[in-house]
């Protein structure tokens, strides 16, 4: 019987390490530097923003409702005028962000400076066109003939000046930007159209004075 009792005591003594090994650690022994988990997944940003905005409004069912919705989201007249005036002012100042693609870039800006640095007979192209229209309705035949002859000579002079301006501008641009792909025809046409406009009507506005060295 004592053998059995010893065996029982030994068995009870041997079970103590197993119980201590499987015992749950005390809360005071937990590392305080570790952050306890939230117990749930972190919501996505788009879900949070959707909850903030609330449910999306239903789409318009009729064309009349769609027109009302577009009118409500459209800026008022004063705001549109302000934005248009701001855009025109930025275009006149030569801001590349609002310029047309044909006017963007340092090459086009240099061409404009070359053209604006000197006067051109081509700048009289628009007044000449008006003079031709006026001569067509003038009742005196002799005046019509002289005006037509003058207009033809002036047009030939302008074309000749435009060709020479395009060639000289292309040479200057190639010397200024040797790494750029320069097309002589495109540069000549751009310079011609710029020079054929009245100076005060050019967009962007000239940033150099006449006679300036470019």
Q: Which tags fit this structure?
A:
0% strand, mainly alpha, 214 residues, single chain
Structure overview:
- The protein has helices at 2-21, 45-53, 63-73, 77-92, 106-116, 125-136, 141-176, 184-195.
- It contains eight helices and no strands.
- The protein is flat, with a radius of gyration of 42 Å.
- The N and C termini lie far apart (121 Å).
- Mean pLDDT is 77; it is low at 1-30.
- Helices cover 59% and strands 0% of the residues.
Tell me the β content. Answer: under 5%
Distance between the termini: 121 Å
Helical residues, percent: 55-70%
Total strand segments: 0
Largest β sheet strand count, sense and barrel closure:
none
- How confident is the prediction overall: mean pLDDT? 77
Give the topology:
Blueprint: H1 2-21, H2 45-53, H3 63-73, H4 77-92, H5 106-116, H6 125-136, H7 141-176, H8 184-195
Helix pairs in contact: 5-8, 6-7, 7-8
Would you summarize the structure shown here?
Helices cover 59% and strands 0% of the residues. It is an all-alpha fold.
């Amino acid at each position: 019987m004592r053998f059995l009792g010893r065996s029982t005591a030994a068995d009870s003594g041997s079970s103590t390490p197993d119980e201590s090994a499987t015992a749950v650690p005390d809360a005071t022994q937990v590392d305080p530097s570790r952050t306890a988990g939230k117990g749930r997944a972190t919501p996505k940003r788009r879900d949070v923003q959707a909850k903030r905005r609330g449910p999306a409004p239903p789409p318009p069912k009729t064309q009349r409702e769609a027109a009302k919705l577009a009118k409500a989201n459209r800026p008022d007249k004063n705001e549109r005028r302000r934005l248009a005036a701001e855009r025109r002012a930025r275009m006149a100042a030569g801001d590349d962000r609002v310029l047309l693609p044909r006017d963007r870039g340092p090459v086009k800006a240099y061409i404009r400076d070359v053209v604006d640095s000197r006067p051109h007979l081509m700048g009289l192209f628009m007044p000449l066109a008006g003079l031709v229209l006026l001569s067509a309705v003038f009742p005196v035949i002799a005046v019509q003939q002289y005006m037509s002859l003058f207009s033809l000579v002036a047009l030939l002079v302008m074309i000749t000046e435009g060709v020479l301006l395009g060639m000289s501008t292309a040479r200057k641009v190639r010397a200024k930007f040797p790494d750029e792909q320069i097309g002589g025809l495109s540069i000549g046409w751009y310079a011609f159209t710029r020079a054929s406009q009245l100076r005060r009507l050019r967009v962007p506005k000239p940033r150099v004075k006449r006679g300036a060295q470019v």
